[in-house]
Each structure stands twice: as C-alpha cells, then as structure tokens.
Automatic annotation (TrEMBL):
<feature type="transmembrane region" description="Helical">
    <location>
        <begin position="166"/>
        <end position="185"/>
    </location>
</feature>
<feature type="transmembrane region" description="Helical">
    <location>
        <begin position="206"/>
        <end position="225"/>
    </location>
</feature>
<protein>
    <submittedName>
        <fullName>Signal peptidase I</fullName>
        <ecNumber>3.4.21.89</ecNumber>
    </submittedName>
</protein>
<dbReference type="GO" id="GO:0016020">
    <property type="term" value="C:membrane"/>
</dbReference>
<keyword id="KW-0378">Hydrolase</keyword>
<dbReference type="InterPro" id="IPR036286">
    <property type="entry name" value="LexA/Signal_pep-like_sf"/>
</dbReference>
<dbReference type="InterPro" id="IPR001733">
    <property type="entry name" value="Peptidase_S26B"/>
</dbReference>
<feature type="transmembrane region" description="Helical">
    <location>
        <begin position="12"/>
        <end position="36"/>
    </location>
</feature>
<feature type="domain" description="Peptidase S26">
    <location>
        <begin position="14"/>
        <end position="74"/>
    </location>
</feature>
<dbReference type="Pfam" id="PF10502">
    <property type="entry name" value="Peptidase_S26"/>
</dbReference>
<feature type="transmembrane region" description="Helical">
    <location>
        <begin position="335"/>
        <end position="357"/>
    </location>
</feature>
<keyword id="KW-1133">Transmembrane helix</keyword>
<dbReference type="GO" id="GO:0006465">
    <property type="term" value="P:signal peptide processing"/>
</dbReference>
<keyword id="KW-0812">Transmembrane</keyword>
<dbReference type="InterPro" id="IPR019533">
    <property type="entry name" value="Peptidase_S26"/>
</dbReference>
<dbReference type="GO" id="GO:0004252">
    <property type="term" value="F:serine-type endopeptidase activity"/>
</dbReference>
<keyword id="KW-0472">Membrane</keyword>
Length: 385
C-alpha cells in the first residue's frame, strides 16, 4: 500500500464534502455538513452559511441552548429547519431562530419531539462554527448538474436522466467510468515505483469509508425514521362522538392519513393494516418532494365497548430506483429496497472517493509526482497551504 500527499487528500476531501452536501440536500438530512437557506438564525448563521452537523443518534440528549436541525411540521410548509432550543417542556422543545422575536411554538408549530431532531449543530466553545459560502457551492453545483441532466436527456432523447432518479443513474455511470479508466491506467502503469509501504498513518480507505457510511446511515435514517407502526386509539362506545377517537360500537369510521415528505427526493410509501379491524387505501403512495399525499384509514369499532389500539405499518423508501423496481423488492421483503438503495448510494461514493484520494496512507510530504484530480482546484488548495 502506497502513501499519498496531504495535497491530494485535501483535494479529494473537498470534492467528497461537496458530494456529501449534495446528497444530504437530496435526502433532506444533513450529512456531516449542512447549511441554512434563510436569515432566521442571524447573526449566528447568515443565509448560505454552512455548519458541522452531528447526527442526533451520535450527539445524544439535547438541551437548552443547542442549535438543532429538526423536521418541522408547519414552518414554511414543513421540512428541515435549523433553530435553537430555548426551553424544554413536558410536551417537547420550544425552538426559535436567533433573529426571530417569537418562538416557533408561538405560531402553529407544535413542540419539537426528540424523534424529529435529525442533527445537532457543532458548537465548539459554546459558539456555532459557521462556514461561509457553503450554500452557494451546493446550489451552484445543483444548477450545473441539472443543466448537464437536461443536455444529456435532450441529446439521448430520454427523460429517464432527469430528476433525482436520473441523477442517481448519472452518478452510478460516472462511478463505473472512473473505476474502469483508473483500473486501465493502473494495469498499464510501470511497476518500478520506489514507494515503500508503511504501517504508520491513517488509511484513506478508512476515511472514505466513513464518508460512505455516513451517507448510507443518513439514507437509512430517512427511510426508517418516519416509518414503523402508527397507532390509532379508538373507544368503542354506545353512542358516537365527533372525530374518530370515539366510534359507536359495531360501526366504522374513516379518517385521513397524511404521508409527508420534507426532503427533495420523492419517496415511495407502503401502508399495511396491522389487524383485520383496520384498513387503509391506497396501500402504495408516491409522495413528491416537499409535499404530502393522503391515504384513507377505516377503523372498525368492535361490538364490545372499550378502548382498542390499532396500527398501520408504514414502510418508506427513497425513490432512487424506478417505482416498479421498489415494488418488486418490497414484495420480496420490506428491507430489500433499503439494502439496494443504500448500495446504490454507498458503493459508488466509496469507489469514486478511493480513486480521488488514493489508496495509501496520509503523510505530510511526498516526492511522488502525481496528476491532480482538478488542476484548478489543486492550485487553489496550494494557495491555502
């Protein structure tokens, strides 16, 4: 195993961070880095500033003063929001943007629950570490990618290269191309290098693997976090009451079951009744980005009075594969689509990352002459060092 220079590592790491940001933006969950799109956190975070996002499962319990990224229900129509916790109550957390005169709960946003928090903003020394310009980099890169998708789709006469699904196809194709070209170059490269392997240093494969694992874990959290059993508590009573919590014994009532998607990647959701006393239609929903799709749940009150608990089992998948493929995998096993989608995300990222930063170990100096991934980016990195 060879060694790589710090310059090549930094160059590849910058590209990996950009890709991680893009994937995080698509998934609707920050991966290592996030950024704010509004000025609600000024002066702590200006519009477009980035921040280091620690996954909630790693960060542990949150407390007053922490800045968190949570899935809002009402703020700007729902979706990810980055605000500060100002109070903890029995019902949940009270949050507020540093620039806002009122809390989110003074409006229509319910108290924030722990299961809504997806990340905690890193605050070394008690202050948020702001990274200027991250939002501009991500949105600019997204615009370029969309332009490339439109050009390729027009040239090839197919719409399958458009949207998030098309981006997944292009990413996978780019991965295969990079891997084949680099393998060909490696096979034809002369073997007279005088580079000696060393056991010291940090393996770049490990670092890239950490990035890939973060992406896979975030994608998995997006799919399984909002899913699972959803409870409906019903009282079978002698007389009916408004709503679906109290139903006249032996009768049925229906209610709307909303399935929300706060990310920019469409999702496919499957709903299963947990018992014969509850039904749901339709059982397959395609939910576009940042929108809500509704199903109808029908509840049956038993002839005997009393309190009954019914469940709808929800399975959610990122629409990075055609819906028909997800359906086929789901019919095999509910976890099968998650495994395939995680593979589509993680494996290409790892292979490209290894080709970008090399396969050796990190060292501070290198006498090897290496062709940079991008000459312009390499010159920019050299100015920093």
């Amino acid at each position: 195993m060879g060694e790589i220079s710090v310059h090549r590592l930094v160059t590849g790491s910058v590209l990996l961070f950009v890709v991680a940001l893009l994937i995080g933006a698509m998934l609707g969950q920050p991966i290592l880095l996030g950024f704010v799109e509004t000025g609600s956190m000024e002066p702590t975070l200006q519009t477009g500033d980035g921040f280091v996002a620690i996954p909630a499962v790693v960060a542990g319990p949150v407390e007053e003063g922490d800045v968190v990224v949570f899935r809002a229900e009402e703020i700007q129509g729902g979706g990810l929001t980055t605000h500060r916790i100002v109070e903890s109550t029995d019902s949940g957390y009270v949050t507020r943007g540093d620039a806002n005169p009122f809390t989110d709960q003074d409006g229509e946003e319910p108290p924030v629950r722990n299961d809504q928090i997806v990340a905690v903003v890193w605050q070394p020394g008690g202050e948020v570490l702001a990274i200027p310009g991250v939002g501009a980099v991500v949105t600019g890169t997204q615009d370029v990618l969309q332009l490339v998708q439109r050009k390729l789709a027009a040239a090839l006469g197919t719409r399958s290269l458009l949207g998030v699904q098309g981006l997944a196809y292009l990413f996978f194709g780019f991965t295969v191309l990079v891997y084949l070209v680099d393998t060909w170059r490696s096979d034809n490269r002369k073997r007279d290098s005088r580079t000696h392997s060393r056991d010291s240093g940090t393996s770049t494969r490990l670092l890239v693997g950490i990035f890939a694992a973060a992406i896979v874990l975030s994608a998995t959290a997006v799919m399984i976090g909002p899913a699972g059993p959803q409870e409906f508590g019903v009282v079978s009573a002698e007389t009916d009451s408004p709503g679906t919590r109290v139903i006249e014994q032996g009768t049925t009532e229906s209610t709307t079951y909303p399935v929300g998607n706060g990310g920019v990647v469409p999702v496919v959701t499957y709903l299963e009744p947990g018992s014969d006393a509850i039904d749901v239609e339709p059982r397959e929903l395609a939910v576009p980005r940042r929108s809500v799709a509704n199903a109808t749940v029908t509840l049956h009150a038993p002839p005997e009075t009393g309190y009954y608990r019914y469940f709808v089992i929800e399975h959610r998948y990122l629409a990075l594969l055609p819906q028909s493929h997800i359906r086929t995998l789901y019919e095999i096993h509910p976890w099968a689509p998650i495994v395939v989608i995680d593979t589509v995300l993680g494996v290409p990222f790892y292979l490209v990352g290894v080709r970008l930063v090399g396969t050796g170990r990190i060292r501070n100096r290198s006498r090897d002459v290496e062709r940079p991934v991008s000459a312009r980016l390499h010159r920019w990195v050299r100015r920093l060092y």
